[in-house]
Amino acid sequence: MSRYLPFNRPHVTGREFANMQRAVENLHLSGDGPFTRQCQAWLEQRVGSVRALLTHSCTAALEMAALLIDVQPGDEVIMPSFTFVSTANAFVLRGAVPVFVDIRSDTLNLDERAIADAITPRTRAIVAVHYAGVPADIDAIAAVAQPETIAIVEDAAQALGATYRGRAAGSLGNLAALSFHETKNVIAGEGGALLVNDRRFAERSEVIREKGTNRSKFLRGQVDKYTWVDLGSSFLPSELNAAFLHAQLHEADEITRQRREVWSWYYRRFEDLERTGILRRPIVPDDCEHNAHMFYVLVSDLAARSRLIEYLNENGVNAVFHYVPLHSSVAGRRFGRAVGPMTLTNDLADRVVRLPLWVGMDQNDVDRVADLVGRGLQCLSSS
Fold it and tell me: I need a surface site. Which of 121, 133, 136, 372 has the fewest CB within 10 A?
């Protein structure tokens, strides 16, 4: 009997428990211990950011970004509707209005051509989501946004290890947010990071992360006591999470290599089915290098997607759909507004089928999934 293939299976390198034991032995379990500092240094070196600060989630990093760019009630933040709720919530919590724009048909990223019509005098930021680990076209976005006046925030939750025109995802905007949730490539169970690429925000980012205090300066001996100086909250992760993450970052390149191998097997297997027109494979622009966060196919319509996912799950393959567009959600209609008819967002969101992809899958697993997808779609087309 074939083994059950979950959509995601968290990968463990083997060093996590030893790191966590060291953290316990060090008697430093709260935030900003040795493992936290090492993870932050790794991110700063690898991504090239001015400052990297671990957080307890990507959501927290986005909330910090909203505070750093001083979002005020009534300000507007442009973003794709095809994204996770945290992309919008982080700014709605500050009283801002999320302004939803359509996505591109190739990458499913924000369509930079839709930005100009969405900009108003109230526009404070543009959030570029790197869907499936394929970076958005930041240079085109920056040409419209002028980052000196309208901040660019990367929602790089899915994109650690990806590059755009040779530059690391997470280094492309004024600020960026990463996720280390167990569904991501590199994990901490729960966790995230704020990447600061604009020096204007470097010092204040530490204050906001430390509950609005200048505690970081105190620990460095720059002040003789610390006190409340600004807005902030408790955004630090536990040192145990950082210890787990440190083991993952140590193997990040190998994790990415193995995921790309699985992704490539899928891509080759679906070439013939794409040629028949019954599905479409992901498209990665020539100037981007993806990190194999996700492999999805686009089918003909919502009915085909629903039946295919049901068929795959009946046969031991856990396939799933993705976001319900935010502009059509209850809270999206309440707090935000859409610019344009959102034609591609509505269409593509109904057609995405995400397939299992994790370290440890072999070519036989991929062949099995691909065969089932082919049989399922062919049965649907003949019925």
Answer: 121
